[in-house]
Design brief:
Layout: H1 4-19, E1 23-27, E2 32-36, H2 48-54, E3 79-82, E4 87-90, E5 106-107, E6 112-118, E7 121-126, E8 131-136, E9 143-144, E10 149-155
Antiparallel strand pairs: 1-2, 3-10, 4-6, 4-9, 5-8, 6-7, 8-10
């Protein structure tokens, strides 16, 4: 599957079936997904906009998200390292540990730079290129989508 969204949904369906869940609802600005073992289950389309508008901009359970660096400030040669799939982005191998990389760190193609977690399954993400980390876009413990930029790396040497 070349479409990252379709691939992410297919993975969610597999996890849904494998764990015997009764229902899973996911809503983002772009997608509303309902998986259910109840054939009469219906999405709450009538209440979704109202519910979304009633959520405060900064919830006490969610840390505020820092604004990404201006796209104009990114050098066009910087390589985006994107999420291979939907998941929770983690900068360090375990809570309390130092992050895999920081801005300014040199990396090689095989350097592990973060983890993505979906339903207790962890995927290691590597730099894929030799260079220097110039920007970390995603916030630690943030849910990211497949294809979403996580880092920008300035390539070095060849």
């Amino acid at each position: 599957m070349s479409d990252p969204l379709a691939r992410d949904i297919a993975q969610l369906v597999e996890v849904f079936k494998a764990h015997g869940w009764r229902e899973l609802r996911i809503e983002t600005a772009a997608v509303s997904l309902l998986l259910s073992d109840d054939p009469t289950a219906r999405p709450e389309a009538a209440t979704a906009p109202e519910r979304a508008s009633s959520v405060p901009a900064e919830s006490p359970t969610m840390p505020p998200v820092a604004a990404p660096a201006s796209i104009a400030s990114r050098d066009p040669i910087w390589v985006p390292i994107v999420a291979p799939n939907l998941g929770t982005f983690y900068r360090s191998p375990k809570p309390g540990s130092a992050p895999f990389v920081e801005v300014g760190d040199p990396v090689l193609p095989g350097t592990e730079i973060c983890l993505l977690e979906v339903m207790k399954l962890f995927t290691s993400v590597t730099a894929g290129v030799s260079g220097v980390v110039r920007e970390i876009v995603a916030q630690d413990a943030e849910l990211v989508e497949g294809g979403q930029p996580l880092f920008y790396i300035e390539p070095q040497g060849n």
